[in-house]
Sequence to fold (353 residues):
Amino acid sequence: MGVSKLPELRIGGHVVRFPVIQAGMGVRVGTGELAGTVINEGGIGVIASVGLGGFTATAGKGYVEESNKQLGVEIQDARRISNGKGPLGVNVMVALTNYESLVRRAVSEGVDLIISGAGLPLRLPGYVNEKVALVPVVSSGRAAELLLRIWKKKYNRIPDAIILEGPFCGGHLGFTVSQIEHPETCSLDILLRDTKKVLARYGEAESRIPLIAAEGVNGIDDIERFISMGFQGVQIGTRFICMKESGMEQAGQEIYIRAKKEDVVVIQSPVGLPVRVLKTPLVERIAGGKKEKFTCNYKCLHTCDIKKVPFCIAKALLSARLGDYENGLFMTGCNVEEIKNTMTVHDFFQSLS
Ligand SMILES: Cc1cc2nc3c(=O)[nH]c(=O)nc-3n(C[C@H](O)[C@H](O)[C@H](O)COP(=O)(O)O)c2cc1C
Fold:
């Protein structure tokens, strides 16, 4: 392998050879296998904790325990694949009803980082020990400011890195619909500038917090662009869906490979945020005002009003993972058309050298 021109990334006490965080993608796309393989190649591997209990829990009762158990299995898988090396992170969405329980389980399993967004993780430091690096995800300087203020006052902690998600990124979006329609008002360079201003006001330690760009990274050119803008690294979601080691089954990956730019739309999610997805029959039925038939065995989201939402997002994400085009919700970033084939994590990281 040649010597990469890309800088290393340092978060907390951890240093990785490539400035790349693999996004923890639910439901079971960002698995222990994907995370462990990314660690072996010199990036930060992240397991998505959302929805893990939904595979086996049949009634509401078992969901929390089953989610914790399955998270433990994924963490052990990643550790086995990477021979116990790190850094290994777990992504936990604030909107989850079992948020605290998942964070505590991840910490007790000895993970190196907790990455947390889809809401502001204001209480996160209260659930962890000093050893775990904390990486909140935000989409504005104001959100970063609020988080810094509360963490400092209540817990005397500062983030070990901050991920800034831009308006073109995949999954749930921390923007209003009108901001998404005018991405020039909330672009990553604006978010970077605003967040840097906030950090500088807080002090020396804060101004050194690594900032990570999340949006549309396909390869080395995008990473170099973000590094030259002033970011310390990137988080990659969409490009990793079609890795051979990802949890997305082949039938699902083929749907992403076929997708064109014009198939990408934004809809309202039961999470209470806009979400970027592929326009599939499910999405068209919802857009046409139809309500899907579903039962709720476990209330996984604080924000979900079962009587009002037109579909169950957990069920739709599980269907997507299996490649069910009719009923699946395929979360995606704007760069999906760039995905022309599946590849191995090894080949991806080789291309960064
Ligand atoms: C299929 C998919 C699933 C995702 N799941 C999660 C998740 O569980 N938690 C989370 O914080 N972000 C999630 N995201 C957002 C990613 O963490 C990441 O920030 C984003 O995908 C980066 O943009 P990109 O997709 O353009 O690379 C997901 C994104 C995708 C595409």
Q: What stands out?
A: The two ends are 7 Å apart (CA to CA). The chain has a mean pLDDT of 95. Residues 250-336 form one domain.
